[in-house]
Amino acid sequence: MARDGDLGLGVVEGDVLLDGVGKAAALFPAAFLAHGRFLWLKGHGHKALALSAVPLLAGCDGALSTLAPSGPAARDIAMLWWAMLIGSGLITALVLGLLTAAVRNNGARRSERGWIWGWGLGFTGAVLVVLLGFSLWIGERMLARGDDALRVGAHAAQWEWRFTQPGPDGLPVQTVDTLYIPAGESFDVEITAQDVIHSFWVPQLGGKMDAIPGHQNLHRLRADTPGIYEGLCAEFCGIGHSFMRFTVVAYDPTGPIPDMSADLIPETRP
Ligand SMILES: [Cu+2]
């Protein structure tokens, strides 16, 4: 049987990479303009381009944005995302430069060997190795460490999330679609599912982790500050998939545990 987190590591990395590539393709170069890194560009055309970035960048903030991290795992993912955006931007610039040079070359022949082995294989391979190493390093940092961190449960079923966490008297209580955790402390989520594969995701706290029937994945997270964090199922799991939203309530651990009565699962319910 796979060790806890083994399967999840691959899931996290795959999602991080795919999300990064997709968002990089969608936002570059507009993101750089709006973040003021290439403000030497002058002229009305560039102003129009910068203005066009505004609606795109509106998606960079908000409760479900990976670019508004509120915990160490989410910060690592955001850092990887920015690294991939910058890297893909530089490679795009390189390819466009080579394309321009080829068009201006007027048919003069050059050695193909250096291009194929140097740029085609060497450069591409180096970029992929660096990105793979970076994503593995970040994925490793997200694994549960086997220490005495608080453990909570997340059980996915069509179409709700059932959470288990310490209640006001310290005993475990089950809630539906709301998870209560102390802010500023690392905690591990034991994630599993009842029927089909779902995926636990709180974008502001960390990456995605699959919820698999008959298997338990551990996911280490932390919320830096008290607040309300939005979560959702990130794996299409059937016709009610869009209903599988949930809330993470991070409370001040120096104060009382909040009242959970509105979210408790009735004992009469199967
Ligand atoms: Cu789903």
Descriptive terms for the model:
alpha+beta, Immunoglobulin-like, 2 domains, five-stranded mixed β-sheet, 5 helices, disordered N terminus, transmembrane
How would you describe the overall organization of this protein?
By secondary structure, the protein is α+β, with helices and mostly antiparallel strands. It is built from five helices and ten strands. The strands form two sheets. It has a five-stranded mixed β-sheet with strand order 3-2-1-5-8. A five-stranded mixed β-sheet has the order 4-10-9-6-7. A hairpin with a 2-residue loop joins strand 1 (150-157) and strand 2 (160-166). Helix 1 (6-27) packs across helix 4, helix 1 (6-27) packs across helix 5 and helix 4 packs antiparallel against helix 5. Residues 1-42 have low confidence and may be disordered. Copper (II) ion (CU) is lined by residues 198, 233, 235-237, 241, 244.
Short description:
The chain contains 5 helices and 10 strands, in the order αααααββββββββββ. By secondary structure, the protein is an alpha+beta fold.
Structural class: alpha+beta
Number of helices: 5
**Mean pLDDT rating:** 80
Beta-strand percentage range: 15-25%
- What is the number of independent domains? 2
Query: Quick one: overall form?
Result: elongated
C-alpha end-to-end distance: 29 Å
Largest sheet: 5 strands, mixed
Radius of gyration: 23 Å
Neighbour order of strands in the largest sheet: 3-2-1-5-8
Helix share bin: 25-40%
Low-confidence stretches: 1-42
Number of beta strands: 10
Pattern of helices and strands: HHHHHEEEEEEEEEE
* Bound ligands: copper (II) ion
